[in-house]
């Protein structure tokens, strides 16, 4: 029994460069023998899940086209205006969520005049 042939991996960096040069145009990214794998990749591209080339989430649209015995992932970039709007919305959401709290790591001593965690000189722990 022979082993199945491995399909070539998609070059996402090259695909993104091509898509950014041609905003709004659909481009074929990869071919899959199993439709589930193609649908999963399309979803990961749209949400930018573990694919940093496609950030921010929603800046790229991906669909699956079935052709013969294969499923093909096609992708397009929605353009700079859509990407700018998504980045602005993400920045506003981060501001609304509030700034992260300062670290309570007792190994750091606050600079004079700067609020922060101070060490208890007797026990070495935080005050």
Notes on the protein architecture:
- By secondary structure, the chain is of the alpha+beta class.
- The chain has a domain at 12-91: Alpha-Beta Plaits, CATH 3.30.70.
- The protein is built from three helices and three strands; from the N terminus they run αβαββα.
- The protein has helices at residues 12-21, 35-47, 80-97; strands at residues 27-32, 60-67, 70-77.
- Strands 1-3-2 form a three-stranded antiparallel β-sheet.
- The longest helix has 18 residues, at 80-97.
- Residues 99-127 are annotated as: Disordered.
- Residues 118-127 have a biased composition (Polar residues).
Summarize the structure.
Residues 99-127 are annotated as: Disordered. The protein has 127 residues and is of the alpha+beta class.
Present the secondary structure layout:
Layout: H1 12-21, E1 27-32, H2 35-47, E2 60-67, E3 70-77, H3 80-97
Antiparallel strand pairs: 1-3, 2-3
